[in-house]
Write a structure and sequence with these properties.
The chain is of the alpha/beta class. It folds into four domains: about 30-90 and about 340-555, Aminopeptidase, CATH 3.40.630.10; about 100-205 and about 270-335, Glucose Oxidase, domain 1; about 210-265; about 580-655, Roll (Pdz3 Domain). Helices cover about 30% and strands about 20% of the residues. It contains 15 helices and 24 strands. It has helices at about 5-25, 30-40, 55-70, 185-195, 210-235, 245-265, 295-305, 310-320, 390-410, 430-440, 475-485, 500-505, 535-555, 600-605, 625-630, and strands at about 80-95, 100, 110, 115-120, 125-135, 140, 145, 160, 200-205, 290, 325-335, 335-350, 360-365, 415-425, 445-455, 465, 490, 510-515, 580, 590-595, 610-615, 620, 640-645, 650-655. It has an eight-stranded mixed β-sheet with strand order 1-12-14-13-15-18-16-17, sandwiched between helices. A hairpin with a 2-residue loop joins strand 23 (about 640-645) and strand 24 (about 650-655). Helix 2 packs across helix 13 (about 535-555) and helix 9 (about 390-410) crosses helix 13 (about 535-555).
Length: about 650
């Protein structure tokens, strides 16, 4: 026996021993292990695994530990398992923040931060000065029609904008008749209209109708409490045991009535938006502030001999704008804020292949982040409870960990490399997966497939598998393996969709995405571990494992197929179809795209990965919100000029919009 052969046999013996040890370490049933992992990742102490919380770091450490215990190589990223990056997750108010109105004869109206005005986090940081325009509601609505800036040029000017929209109480009103407000009332819509019109800054003010309505509600509630307390008191004799308590209740109720009336007269129902409300803007956004009605009225009475309530009433009466320059008045101000950057990390473990195909890669992924303690990503408005995200997506993460355990303990190594990735920041826009495909650890041209698990914890009657059209054999294979695991499978051909597989499909890699469906706890505090179908996860994982193993073992890599369309978990409304794929990881001004769906209007017009849309028709576009709002102003069949910034150059393209998908 040669010395080399002895060494090889020794290495094989050690490898076999390690596999035996790892197999022995997998104590309990697979479902026991899945449940243990699930309880940890969906525990309250992990703070909903929101980006920027300590809980998401605990989750990352746990996934890393479990990958390592399974026997994966944890050194693929410069000797570590963490692929680290930073992203903007918020804004911080700095100094100075000032605002002053100046009028004829040296008259000034000064403002105090926190009392008379607040800075809005969705605006930019800048000094500004110039003429003041009362801009009504900053609405540009073709369907009404109503256009606040149609007859007044606001370019370079500072615009005062009322919140909401006209005719909120009118059951026959043109704006959302019978239910108050429309999409034009959104803060982002108003900012987009002002930015497109070239305004230098926006000063928001609460509309009087809403403030008066809140005051009326509070007064009526307080009056009812007085009546109730008085009725309880008159039923009692003065010497009754609970007479004193009932009397105190009446006095408290009377006090609340006095406060409600006092607040109504003193502006107590005119609350300023707190910094952080409505999210964060991008560098380059125009500055935005929120001023009180009292300060606004002081200006309007001096400049127009009118009030905010008067102007609101006039607009409501005839639905005609009252936009006008406040002659003789100027404004000077400054907003100071900075974007808050947060450290984020994907967790990557590797199971090397063996043989001539060992340099080809299969990625298996699941995102491990969720929406933290509520806020912008929550579907429970105003909730600050922990959103544990047991199904979304602790379920996919625990399935990923369990799959790593099973494949790492195989007696026969797989021919191709398997890369297990727990992605972060999926909830903020597929940012972790986009970061990986932008900076891949293993070459994308030798990555043969990507399998993704997102929300696999509520298996009921059916399992939906997206991407079966992205390679010729996928549909038949999924059907066959699904039947073997007694799964009723719904097949969807599209490769683009609302999860991390989309980032890989944009790079022309075949994908499959496994999904058990949405439910009433989706993005809400009720998504807890005790509602998860653990046997169902195990069942789904059987199908995923079979697909991964077969893909690793076949001689010919899966062939990539372009599939038109973009799969949606929920319908996106009646907007015309455009077909761009957002790149949420870009921080540059404009709406960045990572590609266009094959055969879509965007694809036919020639939009490409890396393009930044900066104008859509007449609408200026600074981010995805602006683009979404601009798109709503058009219909299927409309031809729109789209301006993009491509590698530093400005390119204009003509897009013909299609029917909603």
């Amino acid at each position: 026996m040669t010395r080399l052969l002895k060494v090889l046999l020794a290495v094989f013996a050690v490898s076999s021993t390690l596999q035996a040890v790892r197999a022995a370490e997998l104590r309990g049933t697979p479902q026991d292990r899945i449940l243990t992992d699930l309880k940890y990742l969906a525990d309250d102490k992990l703070e909903g695994r929101g980006v920027g919380t300590n809980g998401i770091n605990l989750a990352a450490d746990y996934v890393k530990q479990q990958f390592a215990a399974a026997g994966l190589d944890m050194t693929a990223v410069d000797g570590d398992a963490f692929q680290k990056f930073t992203m903007v997750t918020g804004s911080k108010l700095t100094e100075p923040n000032t605002l002053t109105f100046s009028g004829p004869d040296g008259k000034e109206i000064s403002f105090e931060l926190g009392t008379d005005f607040n800075v809005c986090s969705f605006g930019g940081a800048a000094e500004f000065s110039g003429e003041i325009v009362f801009g009504g509601y900053a609405i540009d609505a073709k369907e009404v029609p109503y256009h606040d800036f149609q007859d007044v040029d606001v370019k370079g000017k500072i615009v005062i904008v009322m919140r909401r929209n006209p005719q909120q109480v009118n059951p026959k009103g043109k704006f959302a008749a019978g239910h108050g407000i429309s999409r034009h009332a959104a803060i982002r819509s108003k900012m987009s209209v002002c930015s497109t019109a070239g305004a230098a800054a926006v000063l928001f003010v609460n509309d009087p109708y809403t403030s008066e309505s809140e005051a009326e509600k509070a007064i009526n509630h307080a009056d009812s409490a007085v009546v109730k307390a008085a009725r309880e008191l008159v039923k009692l004799a003065p010497d009754a045991d609970d007479y004193a308590e009932a009397k105190n209740k009446l006095e408290d109720a009377l006090s609340r009535v006095g406060k409600a009336h006092g607040d109504a007269h003193s502006g107590g129902f005119d609350e300023l938006m707190e910094f952080g409300y409505a999210g964060n803007g991008k560098d380059g956004s125009i500055p935005a502030m929120h001023i009180t009605q009292a300060k606004c009225d002081e200006l309007l009475k001096a400049a127009l001999k009118s009030s905010l309530a008067d102007l609101e009433g006039e607009i409501d009466a005839d639905l005609k704008p009252r936009t006008q320059v406040l002659k003789g008045w100027t404004v000077k101000g400054q907003t100071s804020l900075e974007r808050v950057r947060t450290d984020v990390k994907n967790v990557i473990g590797v199971l090397e292949g063996q043989g001539p195909l060992a340099d080809e890669t299969i990625v298996v992924g699941a995102h491990y982040d969720h929406v933290g303690m509520g806020g912008e990503g929550s579907l429970a408005p105003g909730s600050h409870e922990v959103h544990n995200g047991a199904d979304d997506n602790a379920s996919g993460t625990v399935a990923l960990i369990e799959l790593a355990r099973r494949l790492a303990t195989r007696e026969q190594p797989l021919p191709r490399r398997i890369v297990f990735i727990a992605f972060s920041a999926e909830e903020l826009g597929l940012i972790g997966s986009q970061k990986y495909v932008d900076q891949p650890v293993f070459p994308l041209d030798r990555t043969v497939a990507m399998f993704n698990m997102d929300m696999v914890g509520r298996l009921g009657e059916k399992l939906t598998v997206f991407g079966v059209g992205t390679s010729p054999t996928f549909e038949a294979d999924v059907k066959r393996f699904g039947a073997a695991h007694e799964l009723d499978v719904v097949l969807k051909p599209e490769g683009f969709g609302p999860s991390d597989h989309s980032s890989f499909y944009a790079k022309k890699i075949p994908v499959l995405h496994f999904f058990t469906g949405t439910h009433s706890d989706y993005h809400r505090p009720g998504d807890d571990w005790d509602k998860v179908n653990v046997p169902g996860i195990d069942q789904v994982l059987g199908l995923v494992q079979d697909m991964v193993v077969q893909t690793a073992e076949i001689q010919k890599r899966p062939e990539y197929v372009e599939v038109a369309g973009h799969a949606e978990v929920q319908r996106s409304g009646n907007r015309p179809y455009f077909g761009s794929i957002p790149d949420f990881g870009s921080e540059d001004e404009g709406y960045a795209i990572s590609g266009a769906s094959p055969g879509s209007p965007a694809d036919k017009a020639g939009l490409k990965a890396g393009d930044h849309i900066i104008q859509f028709g007449e609408h200026k576009v600074t981010d995805l919100s602006d683009f979404d709002l601009a798109l709503r102003d058009f219909s299927a069949g409309d031809e729109v000029e789209v301006t993009v910034r491509r590698k530093g150059e400005i390119v204009k393209l003509q897009v013909t919009l299609a029917k909603p998908k």
